[in-house]
């Protein structure tokens, strides 16, 4: 019932057009009843009494009514579908807005292809149900009721005999309906699997070609494809049983009218005109019954699609607490107090971490992969929530739980190893750091990121299209664009999460110069595997298995002869010559 209410709420903006659509559907049903009525009069009255002018007039009236019905059907088809499209657009809008508010944990568990399947194919099925559902139900219901009443006026007993088939039809439909619903739900899930696999393969097409693994990707795709075939086989088997059984029941209607009507006509209980009318009217009755049967498939697809849509809409979003305050005049002091964190109950990632970064200082996090360095970076912008008893993170002495997410994240800039650029122009990607930035502000940000001169060599300059995920740019160029984006944002806190680890040494030197410029005057947290890049950090913390094993400056940690020195020695042997730019 709750699902039905939510579905019905999407009709609200189109309620006037929906009512007109239903009125048009009602008139279509009423006009459909004129033919058997006129047929009965023709056979029983007009033709026997040779009322030729009345015969012509009745034919013209029926023709006029059919012209009106044609216009009504146009109205229903066009405006009814536009109602469905409008509802679909609103659902897609709501879904996209909801996706924007979902936490990182949702995207950790759901692949992009599955999400896209719900936003496209699922909502299309919902759109079809939104349009055809009410119309089919209204038209079919009116036709069934009107034909039943009209047939009763001719002969009640014969009408009741024919309508004995209705309970059999309902029972048959209900029996096969459940099986068909389950089968089509499995089919839809397998379709989402194909979308997810295809999206992953297409996104990684360059890796596939580089490793010459097209056959492996084809194998993975084919596995999902065959799962879809198997699910479709089960669903269409259920659907075939549903339609064949229900169609057989509707065929019985014709058998009943043939035998029972023939006997009634033989006994003189009805006239030949009434018998002919029964044949015509029963076909008018069978047609809406068949429509309702066919509608069951559409209903199942639409309901399943809406439930899958609602599954995402019911996922809890990131929300500010009721008494949240805005973070203003940020100085940038960051403090972790007894922070313990885990993504799930299987493993604790951080264990009782206590850490403080004074405003304007640079803290570097080093240590083995999987130790918790990136998790610390993710917790500061509140990408993952801390449970109440798992410690606290403070910005300028304010618990981030008490801050609005927007004000918190506006004051934090992040440069990651895996740079994400949107399909569009160079200008659009830099402006993403500040949507209302002027062109001069964009140029200045690019200059500070050491990318302006390169951009000016491009044929279209800042209007150059960079392709999906910036595919037309090198790794260093993409990284400098992301740095320009952060320059434009101008945050008080900066997080560098292995920002140069994927670059060659020469490019790294150039990027490091841009990063050093970016760090000036900001509280900076750096995650780095290349220890040469963090020698000048104010403090270095070694993170091992979610705990801080060592803290201090580079010289202090070297003197301690601990884990840091071991890590450093692994990267720089005694005979290694350090690059002068890294000193």
Describe this structure in words.
The chain has 583 residues and is α/β, with parallel strands linked by helices. 63% of the residues lie in helices and 9% in strands. The protein contains 20 helices and ten strands. It has helices at residues 2-9, 15-32, 34-46, 52-101, 104-109, 112-154, 156-162, 165-203, 205-210, 214-266, 272-313, 373-379, 405-410, 426-431, 439-448, 452-457, 475-489, 505-519, 554-560, 563-571; strands at residues 334-341, 350-357, 362-366, 392-395, 398-399, 412-416, 493-497, 523-527, 539-544, 547-552. The chain has a six-stranded mixed beta sheet with strand order 6-7-8-3-9-10. The protein has a four-stranded antiparallel beta sheet with strand order 2-1-4-5, with helices on one face. Helix 6 (112-154) packs antiparallel against helix 11 (272-313), helix 8 runs antiparallel to helix 10 and helix 15 (439-448) crosses helix 17. The protein is elongated. The chain starts with a helix and ends in a 12-residue tail after the last helix.
Summarize the structure.
Helices cover 63% and strands 9% of the residues. By secondary structure, it is of the alpha/beta class. It has a six-stranded mixed beta sheet with strand order 6-7-8-3-9-10.
Annotate the secondary structure layout.
Elements: H1 2-9, H2 15-32, H3 34-46, H4 52-101, H5 104-109, H6 112-154, H7 156-162, H8 165-203, H9 205-210, H10 214-266, H11 272-313, E1 334-341, E2 350-357, E3 362-366, H12 373-379, E4 392-395, E5 398-399, H13 405-410, E6 412-416, H14 426-431, H15 439-448, H16 452-457, H17 475-489, E7 493-497, H18 505-519, E8 523-527, E9 539-544, E10 547-552, H19 554-560, H20 563-571
Helix pairs in contact: 2-4, 2-6, 3-4, 3-11, 4-6, 6-7, 6-8, 6-11, 8-10, 8-11, 10-11, 15-17, 17-18, 19-20
């Amino acid at each position: 019932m709750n699902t039905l209410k939510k579905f019905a709420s999407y009709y609200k903006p189109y309620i006037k057009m929906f009512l007109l659509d239903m009125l048009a559907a009602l008139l279509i049903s009423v006009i459909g009843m004129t033919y058997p009525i006129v047929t009965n009069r023709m056979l029983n009255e007009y033709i026997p009494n040779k009322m030729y002018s009345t015969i012509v007039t009745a034919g013209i009236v029926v023709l006029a009514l059919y012209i009106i019905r044609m216009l009504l059907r146009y109205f229903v088809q066009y405006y009814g579908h536009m109602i469905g499209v409008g509802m679909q657009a609103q659902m897609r809008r709501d879904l996209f807005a909801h996706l924007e508010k979902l936490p990182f944990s949702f995207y950790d568990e759901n692949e992009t292809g599955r999400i896209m399947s719900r936003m496209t194919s699922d909502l299309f099925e919902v759109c079809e149900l939104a349009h055809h559902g009410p119309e089919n139900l209204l038209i079919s219901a009116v036709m069934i009721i009107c034909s039943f009443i009209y047939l009763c006026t001719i002969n009640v007993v014969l009408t009741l005999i024919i309508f004995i088939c209705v309970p059999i039809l309902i029972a048959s439909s209900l029996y096969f309906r459940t099986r068909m619903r389950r089968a089509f739900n499995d089919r839809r899930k397998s379709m989402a699997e194909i979308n997810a696999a295809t999206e992953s393969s297409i996104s990684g097409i360059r890796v596939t070609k580089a490793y010459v693994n097209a056959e492996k990707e084809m194998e993975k795709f084919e596995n999902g494809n065959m799962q879809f075939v198997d699910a479709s086989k089960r669903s269409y088997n259920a659907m075939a049983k549903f339609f064949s059984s229900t169609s057989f029941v509707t065929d019985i209607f014709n058998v009943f009218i043939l035998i029972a009507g023939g006997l009634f006509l033989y006994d003189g209980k009805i006239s030949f005109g009434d018998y002919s009318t029964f044949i015509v009217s029963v076909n008018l009755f069978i047609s809406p019954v068949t429509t309702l049967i066919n509608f069951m498939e559409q209903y199942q697809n639409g309901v399943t699609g809406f439930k899958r849509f609602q599954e995402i809409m019911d996922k809890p979003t990131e929300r500010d607490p009721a008494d949240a305050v805005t973070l203003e005049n940020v100085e940038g002091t960051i403090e972790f107090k007894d922070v313990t964190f885990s993504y799930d109950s299987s493993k604790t990632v951080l264990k009782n971490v206590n850490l403080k970064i004074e405003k304007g200082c640079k803290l570097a996090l080093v240590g083995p992969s999987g130790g918790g360095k990136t998790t610390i970076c993710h917790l500061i912008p509140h990408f993952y929530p801390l449970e109440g008893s798992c410690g606290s993170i403070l910005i300028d002495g304010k618990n981030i739980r008490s801050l609005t997410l927007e004000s918190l994240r506006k004051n934090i800039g992040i440069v990651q190893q895996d740079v994400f650029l949107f399909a569009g122009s160079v200008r659009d990607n830099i402006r993403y750091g500040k949507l209302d930035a002027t062109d001069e502000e964009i140029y200045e940000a690019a200059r500070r990121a050491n990318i302006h001169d390169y951009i000016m060599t491009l044929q279209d300059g800042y209007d150059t299209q960079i392709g999906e995920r910036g595919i037309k740019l090198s790794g260093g160029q993409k990284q400098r664009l992301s740095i320009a984006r952060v320059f434009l944002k101008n945050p008080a806190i900066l997080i560098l999460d292995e920002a140069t680890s994927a670059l060659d040494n020469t490019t790294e030197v150039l990027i490091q110069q841009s990063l050093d410029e970016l760090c000036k005057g900001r509280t900076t947290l750096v995650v780095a595997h290349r220890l040469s890049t963090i020698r000048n950090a104010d403090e270095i913390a070694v993170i091992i298995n979610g705990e801080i094993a060592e803290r201090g400056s580079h010289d202090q940690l070297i003197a301690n002869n601990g884990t840091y020195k071991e890590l450093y020695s692994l990267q720089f042997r005694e005979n290694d010559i350090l690059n002068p730019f890294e000193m």
